Amino acid sequence: MKLATLRNGRPDGRLVVVSRDLARCAAADDIAPTLQAALDVWDDAAPRLAERAAAVEAGSATGVEPFDPGLAMAPLPRAYQWADGSAYVNHVALVRKARNADMPDSFWHDPLVYQGAADCNLGPMDPIPLADPELGCDFEGEIAVVTDRVPAGTDEEAAAAHIKLVMLVNDVTLRNLVAPEIGKGFGFFQSKPQTAFSPVAVTPDELGDAWDGARVHLRLRVHRGDVLFGAPEAGRDMVFSFPRLISHVARTRPIGPGGIIGSGTVSNADPAVGAACIAERRARDMLEFGEVRTLFLAPGERVRIEMLNDRGHSIFGAIDQVVARYV
Amino acid sequence: MKLATLRNGRPDGRLVVVSRDLARCAAADDIAPTLQAALDVWDDAAPRLAERAAAVEAGSATGVEPFDPGLAMAPLPRAYQWADGSAYVNHVALVRKARNADMPDSFWHDPLVYQGAADCNLGPMDPIPLADPELGCDFEGEIAVVTDRVPAGTDEEAAAAHIKLVMLVNDVTLRNLVAPEIGKGFGFFQSKPQTAFSPVAVTPDELGDAWDGARVHLRLRVHRGDVLFGAPEAGRDMVFSFPRLISHVARTRPIGPGGIIGSGTVSNADPAVGAACIAERRARDMLEFGEVRTLFLAPGERVRIEMLNDRGHSIFGAIDQVVARYV
């Protein structure tokens, strides 16, 4: 099934079930008022939501309305846990190589995860707020999974069963704030502003054979304006699987229901597929031309992140944002 | 007023108003079911909660029951934002000096804040779960404030008005995981397990003259077992005030209602006051004796963190936890 959250003037919006073709939706707030509320009691809520979704497909649901992604908030407009991995180690290696920095060999064996905040997530068509273009605004196309409660110490094998939903992410990053923050030793903070999510979150079965329980084997299509910036295959070169990332996050603490675990920027070793973020393209610029030729985002620019199934249909709907300057 | 959250089998518990002497409480879930719900509409909820609190003090409230901190969850059992500063720069300087590492001068001018997670906060008397004593389990006695919604770009002057509640914190840290994580460049992750909070959160007016709108001018009393481990004065040597920390957190993103902003380990330059965490005591061991003489926490050890007003009464109740090994 596919789930979305529509704006209703409240912080967590209202839960709807969306048709597989993303054309229609039906209220589900009688089952659970919000997606977080559904995730809090997922074993009870999921079968009832699935039943509603089947009724939407069959045309037998009541109160069906057109689904407008412009009215969608992030599926979880705010979440208690947002832990973002860097599972495509190739991306890290490339960016480091471009600035002549070594990457420890341990990065290939020990997952790199940063603690994000998700108190003010952006909807799929919300503008990307930018105070100052000099901050170096970048997009990062990613995949994320949503878990139920994961006990502390859950191993990789047991972690897979805790994956309940899959979404797309635009992990907006202010590149020119990254180096000074990393240098202070406490990780990212101001360099990670609000994160945007796809119009719908889907249960893994919606991915069919493209989901193997650990990775999504489809291309993530990232447009900058009208140009296809990159379309890396998300199942390839993902060194750490989602269950492995979850196990890493849960090593010393549980994950509460509704925890969001991100893949990090999707990236392939093959340069022909392009990149899912500007920083990677700039690293390739350096390696190819000895200089950076790709600029960060300017106000007014548009970013679109999407994933199509093998019949060319959008699975999650599109993250489709315009950079908007604010003062 | 003083607010607490009592266990009721649900993730966010139920909101109660607690008497000033912490002896009694009255249900407030008719005003807002949870503290997060109250913070979501604070301007509406706060006057009604204050009225209930006045009725509890006057003995005119109905349904008053004894307040048992053993039944309390964290005031926010889960929160969308937990950003923890390192405002007592003396602490950072001391720990670095003990390991012969320089501290950049910028640390005195630019706040150091790490992004924490607060999806599974511990109640004041919950055990500290510890899988392996070799991880180097430490307590950190801190103060935290809770905000309403803070717009992105809020400056220090405007930030003060967003402080709605004050709490105490035990920011449990696994010291032996810190160095490898910092070395990876993405900040703390597994080294920061679940955080514990005081039985009640109080509005700043409960602090009287000890609150100047920016700092709490009282001693934070930290016991390890029966021994007073430290009692630093929280208003002294706090280089970055709470409004300054909030402004730092909100530089590139808003803070959602119910954001928790921590001070970092309370620490004074004067060694006579002791320390609010073991790491600082170990740093002083190194400087005084050339060797570490203070061990990290072992299973069965007890930690108590409390703050008394000028008449010797506990303001927040005590964080009072025992380390419990789990497998």
Description:
The structure is a homodimer of 327-residue chains. Chain A is globular. Chain A is of the alpha+beta class. The longest helix of chain A has 17 residues. The N and C termini of chain A lie far apart (40 Å). The interface between A and B is large, with 52 and 53 residues. Chains A, B: Pfam families: FAA_hydro_N_2 (PF18288), FAA_hydrolase (PF01557). Chains A, B: InterPro entries: FAA_hydro_N, Fumarylacetoacetase-like_C, Fumarylacetoacetase_C_sf. Chains A, B: This is 2-keto-4-pentenoate hydratase.
In CATH, the architecture of the largest domain in chain A is Alpha-Beta Complex
Task: State the name of the first-level CATH class of the largest domain in chain A.
Answer: Alpha Beta
**Largest sheet: number of strands, sense, barrel closure of chain A:** 6 strands, mixed
> Greatest interface and its residue counts?
A-B, 52 and 53 residues
Q: Encode the helix/strand succession of chain A as letters.
A: EEEHHEEHEEEEHEEHEEEEHEHEE
The CATH topology of the largest domain in chain A is what? Fumarylacetoacetate hydrolase, domain 2
CATH-defined superfamily of the largest domain in chain A: Fumarylacetoacetase-like, C-terminal domain
The total count of strands of chain A amounts to 18
Strand arrangement, major sheet of chain A: 6-5-16-9-10-12
Structural class of chain A: alpha+beta
The residue fraction in helices of chain A comes out at: 10-25%
Number of helices of chain A: 7
Give unreliable regions of chain A as ranges.
none
Kindly state the mean pLDDT of chain A as a whole number? Answer: 96
Beta strand % of chain A: 15-25%
**Separation of termini of chain A?**
40 Å
Radius of gyration of chain A: 19 Å
Task: Count structural domains of chain A.
Answer: 2
Q: Could you state the oligomeric state of the chains shown?
A: homodimer
Principal-axes geometry of chain A comes out as: globular
GO molecular function, one term (chains A, B): catalytic activity
Protein name (chains A, B): 2-keto-4-pentenoate hydratase
Domain Fumarylacetoacetase-like C-terminal (chains A, B): 82-314
InterPro entries (chains A, B): FAA_hydro_N, Fumarylacetoacetase-like_C, Fumarylacetoacetase_C_sf
